[in-house]
C-alpha cells in the first residue's frame, strides 16, 4: 500500500474519532455553535472517504481507455469535497437561525468545551500531517483534505472562544451568531478547494517557478541542438506532463538526436519525479529563433 493510501485511511479513522468527540460535546451542552463544529466533522469524514476512493482510482495504471492514466480522479475528489462543504454550511446556517430566534441556555459548558478542545487538538495534528505529506506527494486530494481540516481547526478555536464569552456574559445569542460565522468560514473554504481543483481539471500550466526550472534544464542538457520552443506543461494529480519541440541540425543522425532527448528527459525526470516528457524533434529550418536557447 502506498504512503498516500495509508494517509487517506488514517484520515477516515481520525475523522470518525473527532466526529464522535464533537458529537459528545454538543450532546452535553446543547450549544448550536458546538453542533456546527460537529456537523463540519461529518463533512470531514465524507471528504476523507472521497479522497480515499479518488486515490485508489488515481493509482491505477494506464489502460486502453485511459492511456494517460487516472490521475485526474483526485481533482474530482476535491470538487466533491467543496460541494459537501457548501452543504454543511447551509445546514449550520439553518440551525443557527432557529437558535437565534429562540436562544438556549448552554448546559455543562466547561465539560463540553474541554471535550471539544481535545477534538480540535487531534484535528490540528492530523491537519499538519495532511498538508505536509500532500505537498510532498503532490496529491491534490490530500491537500484539499488538509486545507478543509485547517478550516475546521480555525472554526473550533473561534467556537471555543465564543462559547466561553456567551457563558461568562450570559449573551446566549452569541452561540448561534458564532455558528453562522463558522458557516461563512466553511463556505469560503469550499470555494477555495473547488477553485484549485477546477484549475487542474482545465489543464492549468505548472507554476512559473517550475516552468523556469524546466527551461534551464532543457537549455543545460540540449548540447548539440539548436533551440527548443513551444514548451507546454500541465499537472494531473501528482504527474507533471511536459512537451516541447527540439530543433536539431538537419544533418544530425537519428541516434544523436535521440541521445540529446534522453539527456533532457533524464534531467527533467530527476527534477520532477513521475514526470512524463514528450519531445518533438524538428530539422533546423523549423527554428523559430525564440523560446529556449541551447547553451
TrEMBL record:
Keywords: Cell membrane, Membrane, Transmembrane, Transmembrane helix, Transport. Residues 11-202 form the Cation efflux protein transmembrane domain. One of its GO terms (cellular component) is plasma membrane. It is found in: Cell membrane. Its main location: membrane. GO terms for molecular function: cadmium ion transmembrane transporter activity; ferrous iron transmembrane transporter activity; zinc efflux antiporter activity. Residues 207-284 form the Cation efflux protein cytoplasmic domain. SUPFAM superfamilies: Cation efflux protein cytoplasmic domain-like, Cation efflux protein transmembrane domain-like. Pfam families: Cation_efflux (PF01545), ZT_dimer (PF16916). InterPro entries: Cation_efflux (IPR002524), Cation_efflux_CTD (IPR027470), Cation_efflux_CTD_sf (IPR036837), Cation_efflux_TM (IPR058533), Cation_efflux_TMD_sf (IPR027469), CDF_Transporter (IPR050291). It is a multi-pass membrane protein. The keyword Iron does not apply. The chain crosses the membrane at residues 7-28, 34-55, 75-93, 113-131, 152-171. The keyword RNA-binding does not apply. GO terms for biological process: intracellular zinc ion homeostasis. Belongs to the cation diffusion facilitator (CDF) transporter (TC 2.A.4) family. This is Protein p34. It comes from Salipiger profundus. The lineage of its organism: Bacteria, Pseudomonadati, Pseudomonadota, Alphaproteobacteria, Rhodobacterales.
